[in-house]
Design brief:
Elements lengths: L2 H4 L14 E8 L6 E6 L2 E6 L2 H4 L2 H6 L1 E4 L4 E4 L1 E6 L12 H10 L2 E6 L10 H14 L3 E4 L15 H6 L6 E3 L8 H14 L2 E4 L12 E2 L2 H6 L3 E2 L1 H18 L3 E3 L5 H12 L4 E5 L1 H5 L21 H13 L4 E2 L8 H4 L16 H11 L5 H15 L17 E5 L4 E2 L18 E2 L2 E7 L2 E5 L5
Parallel strand pairs: 1-4, 1-5, 6-7, 7-8, 9-10, 10-13, 11-12, 13-14, 14-15
Antiparallel strand pairs: 1-2, 2-3, 5-16, 16-19, 17-18, 19-20
Helix pairs in contact: 7-9, 9-10
The structure holds (4S)-2,6-dioxohexahydropyrimidine-4-carboxylic acid and zinc ion.
């Protein structure tokens, strides 16, 4: 089956009148008795038991029906941190393949970082990403604008022009690199405040990570790898918390990875500083133990840390100290990954595995429920980015951006079955239980597991 029929276009920004969609026997948030959900014109029109039987005449004939038995219904997932590599590295991922990977992972909206080539530092580049994704219609792809021109850390970009462009850029980040110069970060904060846009910081003091390829600890020492100390992240988190306090704009910390970062976030929140943070599925699940094979797939920035870090990150997400999950989906080709560990490019895939990883850590273990998953993978990222239409309650009158999950459907992670172009899958051969079965964007099915084989 080709990708186009597997992921039908949706006519995203201006929803065309579609066939009604009926999702039968599904449990919103995995709670209560199963209900039927009727979607008309991209909006949840009715919810309740026995709707299928009540549908009359033409509508009953025309309706597209999804059998939701055994499935949990969640608001469509939102990922505020991915890398889709277009423009520049279309050999590793494109807006189209990235959108397909996103839909397969249950996402209805993603934010793609600015470290493209050329960098997303002007309205024309942001607009082309947004327009292309809307034409494809498989996922809303929001471009992130860079904070500095060419991500060079020297001159601020025109936030206002990008914010006012057709792409409506609402988040700015030099992710991949840190805005290390404190004066520049201060100016960026002051500028962002006037426009009420979000700054997302890749917290890495570069003077402390020169040549670093792995977490600074016992494993790196044993393997002879140069270490990336926790303080490189934490010193920037602390600095930016203080800048956010004194210059009053929102700062979001990308991929929090250490116990110390959790402590700093706790302090910042106790002071009502407008600091938010995300954590990746890989920093919640994996540790630097994985490095013993020197497999370049496990090189990532920030690096995989130690067991106590993963435990602190899990607890912080449960407590709301860390706000949300973001994948940092970072596709790379074999030529950049199947090489000596030191020469491998940092980054790992995440879009197609994140829901399963989060379900495994938090739901299957009994630590949390599906409401929690909806909060950290949909509602909070939509709130932090002030994204309308996504992360909304599963309720009548709301946009039909929805994800269906079968919590009991064992599967084995296999890079050859990915929608993504890249193969740098850190979970190869691992078994999971939860699987996305359908993703729905404004009432149109953008992914269906049934259509896959
Ligand atoms: O591991 C990473 N890969 N971390 C980043 O911050 C950037 C990303 C990439 O672009 O590959
Ligand atoms: Zn990133």
């Amino acid at each position: 089956m080709t990708n186009t029929s597997q992921f039908p276009a949706t006519g995203a920004t201006h929803p065309v009148p579609q066939r009604p969609l009926l999702i039968s026997n599904v449990r919103p948030y995995g709670e209560g008795d199963p209900v039927d959900v009727l979607v008309r014109d991209g909006v949840i029109a009715e919810m309740g038991p026995g709707l299928a039987e009540k549908l009359a005449g033409d509508e009953a004939q025309q309706a597209e029906v999804i059998d939701g038995a055994g499935n949990v219904l969640l608001p469509g997932l939102v990922d505020m941190h991915v890398h889709l590599r277009e423009p520049g590295r279309e050999d590793t991922e494109t807006i189209e393949t990235g959108s397909q990977a996103a839909a397969k992972g249950g996402f209805t909206a993603v934010f793609t970082m600015a470290n493209t080539n050329p960098a997303t530092d002007q309205p024309v580049i942001a607009e082309s990403i947004w327009a292309k994704a809307q034409r494809i219609g498989t996922c809303d792809v929001h471009p992130v604008g860079s904070i500095t021109k060419g991500l060079e850390g020297k001159t601020l970009t025109e936030f206002g022009m990008m914010a006012r462009s057709d792409a409506k850029v609402r988040m700015f980040s030099d992710d991949g690199k840190c805005v290390a110069d404190p004066q520049l970060m201060r100016r960026a904060l002051e500028y962002a405040k006037g426009l009420d846009v979000l700054l997302a910081q890749h917290a890495e003091e570069p003077r402390l990570t020169d040549g670093a390829v792995a977490h600074e600890g016992e494993t790196a020492a044993k393997l002879g790898l140069t270490g990336w100390p926790r303080v490189a992240e934490e010193s920037i988190v602390a600095r930016d918390a203080l800048l956010a306090r004194d210059y009053g704009n929102r700062v979001h910390i990308c991929h929090a990875s250490t116990t110390g970062t959790v402590e700093l976030l706790k302090w910042a929140k106790s002071q009502d500083i407008p600091l938010t943070a995300e954590v990746t599925p890989h920093h919640l699940l994996l540790t630097d133990d994985k490095l013993h094979t020197y497999d370049g797939v496990f090189r990532v920035n920030p690096p995989l840390r130690e067991e106590h870090d993963t435990q602190a990150l899990r607890q912080a997400l449960l407590d709301g100290v860390i706000d949300c999950v973001a994948t940092d989906h970072a596709p790379h080709g074999a030529e950049d990954k199947c090489v000596e560990f030191e020469n491998a490019k940092p980054g790992m895939l995440g879009l197609e595995s994140s829901l399963a990883v989060i379900a495994e850590i938090f739901v299957a273990s009994g630590l949390a429920d599906w409401r929690f998953v909806a909060r950290v993978m949909s509602e909070r990222p939509a709130e932090i980015t002030r994204l309308p239409g996504h992360g909304r309650p599963v309720a009548v009158g709301e946009p039909a951006n929805l994800t269906l999950v079968d919590p009991n459907s064992p599967w084995t992670s296999d890079a050859t079955r990915l929608a993504s172009k890249a193969r740098n899958n850190p979970y190869e051969g691992e078994e999971f239980n939860a699987q996305v079965t359908h993703t729905i964007l404004r009432g149109a099915v953008t992914y269906s597991r049934e259509a896959e084989d």
